[in-house]
Amino acid sequence: MKDKNFGHSVHIENIATLARIHLTEQERQDIEKSLDEILEYFDKLRTVNVEGIEPSAHAFPLYDILRDDEVGTPFDTKTALQNAPRQRNNQVIVPKVVE
């Protein structure tokens, strides 16, 4: 299943270089074997007759279960601040994250 011109090892080495990772010879061989198995599976999938089957992103239909946005009554200040760990002047005090 290897590319007739280069073989997987050239592609694996190129990807490893781009990702800035070092692969041992054993790791490269393991990845090459896994890649062969994946590509063989894709070849099997190509033989499946899918005529008349609509493409889908999921095995089961998904439906939006969220409610519609509706304008509601906002929290009063006391309710909004009741779980704030620290507060001052009706505002939540948070740790500084930017210097």
Summarize the structure.
With 99 residues, the protein is mostly helical.
Task: List the main descriptive attributes of the protein structure presented here.
39% helix; 4% strand; 99 residues; mainly alpha; two-stranded antiparallel sheet; Histone, subunit A; disordered N terminus; flat
User: What is the C-level CATH assignment of the domain at 8-46?
Assistant: Mainly Alpha
CATH topology of the domain at 8-46: Histone, subunit A
SSE pattern: HHHEE
* Form type: flat
**Biggest sheet record:** 2 strands, antiparallel
Helix amount, in percent? Answer: 25-40%
In DSSP terms (H or I, runs of 4 or more residues), the helix count works out at 3
Measured distance between first and last alpha carbons: 54 Å
Protein architecture, described:
- This protein is mainly α and 99 residues long.
- It has a domain at 8-46: Histone, subunit A, CATH 1.10.20.
- It is 39% helix and 4% strand.
- It has 3 helices and 2 strands; from the N terminus they run αααββ.
- The chain has a two-stranded antiparallel sheet with strand order 1-2.
- A hairpin with a 2-residue loop joins strand 1 and strand 2 (91-92).
- Helix 1 packs across helix 2 (25-46).
- Mean pLDDT is 86; it is low at 1-6.
